[in-house]
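Aim 2 progress update. The chain analyzed this quarter is reproduced below.
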Amino acid sequence: MSFYGRSLMILPLSQQSSNAALTLRVFTKKKDQMKKIVSTLLLLLFMFAMTAAAQNANSSTTTSGSGSATKPAKKRGPVFRASKDQIQQAQKILKDRGFYAGEQTGKLDADTRTGLKKYQTAETLKVTGTLNKVTLERMGVTLTDKQRAM
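Predicted structure tokens:
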């Protein structure tokens, strides 16, 4: 028999039931696999939710009456910033003393920081590689009113 160019075979009843049983077993296996996947995903989701809840509980800032209050973070004051003119003056001083070989750009680049570290070491200052208040004062560079107040 042919139906649109395809041959149709009618299988014996015993073979049809065997194919149906095989199809049912494959379907049942896939269904079981899907159940395992969904169960695993739900378990992982639950574990992540519990972890997040535990972290939130640990990070709360409530204190009990036992006197174990945490200290609030120390508020940081204003940051000392040297002006472009002050940096240029410092670069000139460093160049005159032989700690810096670059140009007076007014930018606190890597070479300037290296020169500042050498200067601070030679002057027995805290070695930071930055133009802080103490370093500028030691160099004789004039501070602004705002910088003096810090």
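Residues 1 and 135 are 103 Å apart (CA to CA). The chain has a mean pLDDT of 81. These observations will guide the mutagenesis experiments scheduled for the next reporting period.
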